[in-house]
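We read letters as residues; the fold follows as C-alpha cells. Both lines appear below.
***
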Amino acid sequence: MKSDDKIERIIEESGRWKPMLEKLRNILLETELTEEIKWGMPTYSLAGQNLIGLGHFKGYVAWWFHQGAILDDPWKVLVNAQPGKTVAMRHWRFESAVAIEKDKILQYVREGIQKNRQGKSIVNKPYDPIKIPEKLANALSSDKILNMQFMKLSPGKRKEYIEYIHEAKRESTQDQRLKKIVPLILKGIGLNDHYRSKS
C-alpha cells in the first residue's frame, strides 16, 4: 500500500476528526514538505528532517512542530504537551474546523521551513535514565529469558516499561503492571506497539 493510501486510510478511520484532518493535510500538501508515515501518523519533512506531525487525540486534532519552541508564535497557539520532558516540540490543537485558519497556519509552516534552512534548532538534552524499579529489576534478575528479551528491546521501548512501573506509586499497582508487561516483553512487544501498529 502506498504511503498516501495509508494516510487516507488513517484519516478515514479517524471518525469525527476526518474533516479537520483532511483540511490540515490539504494545507500541508500545498507546501514543499514531503509527506510520509512515521509513528503511525502523517509526518511532514524537509530534506529528511521531520518538521510537522499530524494526528488526533481524545478531545482534539493537533499537529506538532518538532522544533516549535524556536517559532515566534505570534498568536500564542503552541503548547508544550509534556513540560519538563519535551524541550523543542510544541503542539497546536484544534477542536473544530472553524479554528483552522489557513493563512495563520502557513505563516507558522513557512517560518519553520525558513529556520530549518538556516540550521536553527534546539538540541534535546541527553536522556537521564531512570533507575529500573526494584520490582522490575527483581523480575529480570530472576528470569534469564525475560532479561534477555528485555535487553533485545530498543532503548525507547525499555524506557517505556521502566517509566510504566516507576510511575505507579502503590506497590499493588506496580504488581499489576508487572504482571501485564511480562508477557509483552517475552513476545518482544513494546508497551505502546498497539498504537504504532495502526500505520
User: Anything to note?
Assistant: The first helix runs from residue 3 to 12. The radius of gyration is 20 Å. The longest strand covers residues 49-56. Residues 15 and 56 are 10 Å apart (CA to CA).
